[in-house]
Each structure stands twice: as structure tokens, then as C-alpha cells.
Amino acid sequence: MRIVIAEDDALLREGMALLLKAEGLDVVAATGDPDAFLAAVDEHRPDVALVDVRMPLTHTDEGIRAAVEARRRYPRLAILVLSAHVEQAFATDLLASGSARLGYLLKERAGRVEQFLDTLRRVADGGTAIDPDVVTQLLSRSRTDSRLERLSPRELEVLALMAEGLGNAAIAERLVVTEGAVHKHIRSIFAKLDLPPDEQTDRRVVAVLRYLDDVRRRS
Known about the structure:
CheY-like_superfamily; six-stranded parallel beta sheet; 2 domains
């Protein structure tokens, strides 16, 4: 797995690089600004990019804009975004480019090494991994949406864990319920969100992205 890192905090940038190299991963470049990041992506054609949301010059959305541009140039590039806070507009900007091979992780969770590495591998393998705190906050901010109001509190919990990338068995373990109960909740979510079976789309991802898109439109 070839990785490019974009993080303006030198200590964090070098720390991540050392951690990933210790795990046998190939960090081909570690950059501190958006332009250097895009140049490194063009040069090395990595499998995965780790990108901080806020980078120079204004420390607002340069990182996420660079990530969107990198995905435009290389649609199969896996991207794991790291942020200190929930950036609702930025999250949906990136997810609008497609959900596969994308992750959004809060930095406090990135400090949990095993979880961070698991998320990185999941995204590199083509999955979607959205920090559960991000999903919870974005969903709670969109409570005025009539479709969201159809969901029960337990269904919202299941939806957040689906967005984190967990399968039914892992969701059941997290919520301390049976796998059959999780399956029933998911079927109910799909029904309430008007998501019939469709071989061309992943309903689990659509169920989350629909609400992230609602938040983006209202922001």
C-alpha cells in the first residue's frame, strides 16, 4: 500500500509516517501544504492519501479542496480525511464525489492506533468509513428532515454504525443485540427512506449520504 500524507503539523505528520512505516506500509511522501500534496499525488500515484482538512494558507478548507481535486484527477484514489472537528460542509463536499474508498476520521480517534489502521485498510480496500461522531452530529443537525423523523432512535444508532463501515455482526456486538435484530432495523431503515433493492447501488451507503447531502444543502 503506497501512501501520501498531507498534514501541516510537522510532529503529527512525521509521527504518522513513522507509525505507518513500522506497520510495513510504504509512505512515499509526507507533505505540509495542498500544492505539495497534489504534486506528490501526481508524481507517486499512491493507493491512499491521508489528508488534514485545515491546511495553509488560511487553515479553513484547503485540505478538503485538495482531496476533492485529487479524486477528480484519480477517481480510484482512496482518501482518508483527518479533522480535529466535525466539518459538515467539507464532509459532504468530499462525499459528493462518490462514497467508495473514502473515510472521514476525527483526529482524537486516529490516536487509537488499531482503530486508525483498521479504518485505513478498510478505505484502501474500497470501503467507506465515516467516524461515528461525525455521523451522529450530522444526523442530529438534520432532524428537521421529514425522512429522518421516520427513523427511531435505535435505527439512527444503527445507521451511524453502518456509516462507520461495520457489518451486521459488528453492529450487533456494539449494540449488544442479536444479528437478527440488526437485520430488522436495517430493513426498516431502507423502507422508511424509500430505498428499494437495487443491484446498482449500495443502500447502506445511500442511507447515510442522503442525509449528509441534506445537511450540505442547508449549510
